[in-house]
Design brief:
The complex is a heterodimer of chains A (99) and B (193). Chain A contains two helices and five strands. Chain A has 99 residues and is mostly beta strands. In chain B, the strands form two sheets. In chain B, strands 1-4 form a two-stranded parallel ribbon. Chain B is 44% helix and 11% strand. Chain B starts with 6 loop residues before the first helix and ends in a 16-residue tail after the last helix. The chains are: A mainly beta (99), B alpha/beta (193). At the A-B interface, strand 2 and strand 4 of A face strand 3 of B.
Chain lengths: 99, 193
Amino acid sequence: MFAPGAVVRVKDAWPEAAGPAQIRTPYYVRGAVGEVVRHLGDFPNPEDLAFGRPAERRPLYHVRLRKAVLWAEPLADDEVLVEIFGHWLEPGKSPEPGE
Amino acid sequence: MNILETDGERLLTAVRSLLEQKGIVSPLEVRERIEATDKASPGQGARMIARAWTDPAYRALMLNDGTKAAEAMEIPMRGMPPLGVLENTAEVHNLVVCTLCSCYPRAVLGYPPFWYKSAAFRARAIRDPRELLASEWKTIVPDNVKLRVVDSTADYRWMVLPMRPAGTEGWDAARLAGIVREGDMIGVTLPVI
């Protein structure tokens, strides 16, 4: 479980390259470092649900990503708030100031 | 052609009776869901927003648990995805999009506007939201206000609580509800009087 404020990295994984997949992690956040806002609850894993397989309940988090982490942005404080399942997150490292 | 005897209608009847025979859903549950879907419209969300503007305890409930806040207004939420509400302030403006498909807080806003599902809206909302809001809706988010794009990617649905516009002092909730549009509740527009 990740606590609010935890620095996390969205896994840079591409399971769809290996075969049919239903994934709720958008391309643009993969590999990006952000921060957990809160745990939203536990929900059946959509990656199994979509194929009629038994779907384990997995923690879902609201994760904040600074827009400047994703794209060159003139307004660095703008952000994206996105729902990401726990199995897509790993502990991350805050970027150095000015990085 | 008799539209009550089309292949689609026969298929629907067959599926509904199978769902009933297999005990998956009851006819009552199907009727309840059809009624809830028909009743859902931006007017429901507007009633919630207007009450939040006039009732601080309700506002707190709404920001903590949107589903309970909807149920408190007798909006049916059973079987619907959980609802979250994000507040616009002088520091932050929220814009809701679903970049993966078309997730939308239907229980409280009804069917999404046609453009909400378009690839153009979804791509521009995440990549260049300030330009999108300014060019399509003349909604200018000042540079000193943080723009937060809420990408609705999974099991929650998100609605925006806009700021109450100036000039509405003394208005009651019914009058306030009349100025809240669907775009205000996903952050593409701001309420105006």
